[in-house]
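@channel sequence for tomorrow's demo:
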Amino acid sequence: MRTLPIPTKVYCDGGMLPNPNAKALTGKSQSSRSDIGCTWAFCWVDEHEQKCHENWGAYLLPNQPMILPGQFRYVKPEWELTTITSPLAELLSAIHCIHQLPFGWNGEFCTDSETTIGRLFGIDGSFWEWKNVPDDIKQKGQWAVSRLGEVKTTLLDGHPTARQLLQNEGKRGHPVSLFN
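structure tokens (generated this afternoon):
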């Protein structure tokens, strides 16, 4: 069995598998919901700011014939959903990441999802509601976090431009990263 390195920071992100009919359904080319599924990815970074572990995959909702590139890891969801939301995709990515961390891990958790931080770690001492999250996902997330030591959370601005990366500040004033 391969021993994983111990990171100092972790980054995670989730995304929607676009519905080809989104524009007809909502008037927008993208939506915060998908009836197809979502993707998730995370990476761990060491004390030298070098990527030391990564993982990614996709959840396809029932009855989806869509085929993605061969390197994706497909997981059939254990829950009964007909749509998946962007916040749920972000949360699934975080749970995948945290589940692989060693017991008692201390470090920095980085994501562009304030909802995920609020649900898993709380913000200003308050935890956010788990609205529209299946109970088994909530339980997995809470269990995963309970295994950790001291964790600093960092809310990132997602999808930074090259200029924002150089300045380390995104459009909303949060830090940015190549890893998110």
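heads up for whoever presents: Residues 14 and 90 are 4 Å apart (CA to CA).
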